[in-house]
Each structure stands twice: as structure tokens, then as C-alpha cells.
Amino acid sequence: MSRRVIIIGAGPGGLASAMLLAKTGAEVTILEKQPRVGGRTSLIEADGYKFDLGPTFFLYPQILQEIFQAVGRDLYQEVPMTKLDPQYRITFGAGGELNATPDLERMVAEITKLSPSDAQGFRRFMEYNRVKLEKFAPCLQMPFPGWSSVLNPRVLAVLPFLKPWKSLHAELAGYFKDPRLQLAFTFQSKYLGMSPFQCPSLFSILSFLEYEHGIWHPTGGCNSISHNMARVAQELGVKIQLHTAVEEILFTGRRATGVRTAQGELRADAVMMNADFANAITKLVPNNLRRRWSDAQVAKKDFSCSTFMLYLGVEGTFDHLAHHNIYVAKDYRRNLDEIERQHVLSEDPSFYVANPVRTDATMAPPGHSALYVLLPVTHLHPNVDWNKERARYRSVALRQLEKLGITDIEKQIRFERVVTPADWEGKVDVYRGATFNLAHSFAQMLHLRPQNRFEEFDGMYLVGGGTHPGSGLPVIFESARISSKLVIEDLGQAARTRLDSSGAPRAA
Asked: Is this prediction's pTM over 0.85?
């Protein structure tokens, strides 16, 4: 029996779920408000320049490859990509730089240039985190519907590695004495929108993944992953409706039974929400229906930082830049404190620049560059009025670029787009502009995160960075596997237990 599933949002989690569900014979419809698929992993394109809207790093493609294999496809044939080496260059405001490479011996040599006594710490870091990931991987592959899930033997096996009393930065201080190297292996907490001084030590697996499995660039940018997933999903029978905003999720009692759009009502046996969790739950489900996740409760949660973005189409090339470039502010602790506690704008912020034409000529016209500039900033807060700060902080960003040798860029800019936290909220529907979703503190992980089989209502499921396991493309793809499996189990059980008029089980 074909079962109907509606997915709200065509982000990477929704697209992966659609592929898996369609392969089982479900009738899947994705409703997307924007004119493109991808959500935060979509495309900005103009005048021959192409930019990823959001993620530019693609880590650990194995999970997505397994999803493609599950539907009879090969990721590397459907989405051509290049493994980067060097992976990125880190320039330290305190002096020095590090060309990160997945080649173990070359990486040891790079570390030796900065701090000879720390070279062997890298080997110990890799050996320990290889075991740590092996132990923790099963926890990323299973749902956590309640406290009892924490007592699962697979979870208990990883407890010695969790160290909840220890921050990520404190964990890395056990491997590297040089503060620059401590930052080089902890800045990845920004993938979660968190400070390494607050982020749980568990997430040392993020930098390990970079060196163990590499960083990849899909041809055309990470947005091409979304584009090609949508294509494969449609080939599997999925219907994708763009320019279609969901206005309300419909319920019969406490069961989700469909959605309402401007075009009318659509009914389904299951509703999966791939939109930004906090934004969507407060807009699409009446507050009086919600118990655990009322507007007041959502507002009390901890949210990630946001980002100030410049997308610059520039005449000329920057051969001195790597594909990925990270500048770490001299006073990194102060920069993070200004973002997370003071909620003010830094005058010497850390920043990131993607220069993808180093690898991929399709990203800009010949002789031009498509520079992606990201500055971590506070999520929306009364301390910062982006109507006043937008232009000023653009100037700060351009001034910071000089620290990577990008000078007099104003006269070379041929295309420009600025995105502030206010734009993330107002135009991309990201709650408080918190681009990395709910923070990943221990109080907001596992069963304490909004659950894949959403605990408030029957027939409603979550996928994406707002649910378990969390933010970042590999984990979002894992959430798709978890949530899709739950949908398949529940719909199959519903079909098996439905009785015909004679009392005999009706065929599923």
C-alpha cells in the first residue's frame, strides 16, 4: 500500500529522506517556500558567479554515499567532487600559519614548523579519536526517544569518552601546548555555532574527521549536492513543489494529518518537517497545541551564533589564497566572548574566506573570482541593530581581508550580496538568525533535542540540524536515515494493523 508523506522544506535532510522513502514505495511530496532547493545549502548565482549560500565544507561523504547506494546510485558519479589538499590554510593573528593536509606525515611537518614539541601530539590525537568515533558512531545512527535510550549498551560504551566536565578546548590542550594549535583543532566547533571553550569535548571528532577522511569540494559547490539529490529524488518519483510555503500543519486530535498552503490543503499519512525547527514549530503549529515546545520554552533554549556574509564577484584572481582560508583573531577568547556572552560586534573578528576557483573554474567567469566571506557574529540580539550596522560591518569585513593580503578590493568588485543575521531570519526563516540552529550543549543533545519522531504529535517527524544528531551536513544526512527509518516502521505498522471489514488484516 502506497503511503503519503509530506516533507516541509527541500534542505539536504529533506531531500535525503525523500530519496529513502520513495525507494520504499512511499508517495512523497516536498513543499519548498524558496525558488530553489537546498535551504541553507542552496545557490546564489548572478553574472556568471556562483556562491554557496551556506556550507562550503563537505566532510565525511561516506554517509551520503550509503544513502545513494541504498537507492541504487553512486554519489561520486552523481555528484563529481574533488578531495582538497591542502584542506585549508589557517592564519593566526598571533603570528604564523598552518597549511592543513590529510597527509599524516606532511601534517606532522606542518605542526613542527609552529611547535616542534607538539608534533607527536597530533599522532596521539588521531589514534585516540579514531577509537572515540568508532565507539560514538552508533549513537549518531539511532534515535533517542527518552531517558531509557541513554542506557542502551551502545551509548554506555561511549561514556568514558564523553567527559562532560571538559570543554573541547580543554580536551585539545591535552595534546597541544601551543595555543595556536589548540585553536587549529578546535575552531571546528564553529560548524556547530559554538565556542570551543563551551563546546563539549565530544566534538573533537569533527577535526579528526577532516584529517581521517578529508574535506571535499563538489563541483559547482556544496549546493550541487542539493541540486543532484533533488534530481535523483524526482527520478525516484518524488514531487517537489517550489514557491510553495506551508502556512500551517493540520492535526486530527494530536496526529499530524497534512498541511495547508496558499493553494489549499494536502493530506498525508506522515508529515516530516525539514524547516528550521524553532522558526517552523512556532509558526506552523498553534502554541496552544504544544506542551514541551511552546513559544516560551523555545525562547528559553540556547541558540548558536549567526554569520555576517559577503558574497563577492571579483575581477581578478587571488593565487596566494588557498581554497579555504581561516583567520583566527589575535584575541580569540575576546572575540568569542563578544559573540556569545556580550552579544556585540567585534572590531577584530575572526573570519573565513572561500576562494573556490583555486579548485573549480565553474564558480566564476575566466579571470574572475567568487569570494565567500563569513564572519561569525551574535545571533539576533537587542544589542545590535543591523539596519545601522550593515554598512559599517561591511567595511570591517573588507578591512579584515587585508590580513590575508586582499587589498584594494573595492575597485575589483563586480557583484556583491550582503547577508546579515536579520536577513537569515527574515529571508531564510532561521530563528534569531542562528545559522547553526539549536546549540549543541549537553542539555540540548540526544533525547533532550527535539526528537526525530517528534514527541509532541503522532505522525510528525523531524529531520535536519534542529533534531538528533545535530548540525553539519554529515550529521544531517544521518538524521535523514534515522527519521526515514522511523517513518517507514510506523507507516508499515499502521498498514499491517488496519483491518478490513471481515476482521482479517489488510495487506500492507
From this structure: yes
